[in-house]
Amino acid sequence: MPVRGREARHTAFRAGTARRWHNQQNEQNGYQVVRPSAAQGIFYQDGSLKECVCWVYSVNSSEDIKVPHYLCHEQPDLLDFETTVIASRPGAVVLARSALHPGGGGQVPDAATLTHAHGAARITGIAAEGDVLWHLLDEPLELSGDVHVAIDAARRSTVAQLHTGTHILNALVYQRFAGALVTGAQINADGTARMDFDLPEADNDALRLLEEPVNEVIRSAMDVRTYYVSATEAKSTEGLIRSLSVAPPPTPDGTVRIVEIGDLDRQACGGTHLTNTAQSRPIRIAKIENKGRRNRRVRIELV
Ligand SMILES: [Zn+2]
Fold this sequence. Notes:
Blueprint: H1 5-12, H2 15-28, E1 31-43, E2 49-58, H3 71-74, E3 80-89, E4 92-95, E5 112-116, E6 119-129, E7 132-137, E8 145-151, H4 153-176, E9 182-187, E10 192-198, H5 204-208, H6 211-219, E11 224-230, H7 231-236, E12 255-261, E13 265-268, E14 283-291, E15 295-302
Antiparallel strand pairs: 1-2, 3-4, 3-8, 4-7, 5-6, 5-8, 6-7, 9-10, 10-15, 11-12, 12-13, 14-15
Helix pairs in contact: 4-6
Zinc ion binds next to helix 4.
């Protein structure tokens, strides 16, 4: 019988004890814990873990272990799920599992509706504290027990369209402006985004002319796929790490997630994207600004 509610919260805060126990279990089973996150688990009364999110790799090299990454990357269509509150403070909860994208690299996090025993609240943001993701609520509730979470699908879609659009824009800038790198990005839920490029010599009119080629790529229905490569391969392959400001998204096993758009582009990224460019509305280049001597800021929006 797993501990739930207040008891779960209590045991979750004894994570140090559970973590040691958990490390032992993994070592016995031939796994080495890279990023233990025992606080994200469902506990038995004796403090042992029933299930948890645990980053491991096999120390038996013959065994190919599937290392957990973001649930939203493994199951991008999972927008509704049941879970359990395993830690709570006024206005925030830690969930046993979560399919929300926590944001990062300029992308805003997912939002969701959380239905609990006494009603519903909005998850409006996510705050990472170490390995623990606190889901922030729009009310100062202190919750426990089983909950249902429904991710805001329209917001996820808007962000994925824009994020895919920024990759296309980035690819065209990289190709046409001598390997210019990204110095910053912001992808918003209101259908707007901006990208900053290290482009000291660029003509703003030439940048503005990229709007039509970006939309051509969208219309050409290129498949977007994701896979993981070793950090060594990511660093040694030219053009794979495209950002000067954002490190490639960390994964527990030291691999780097690659997002590939047809034969146009591939680059390291941990965000949410479409699976085909044709799923996107067209984009418009709304504004180009000079930010300092080297940087050009390109603002785009979904039409
Ligand atoms: Zn991306």
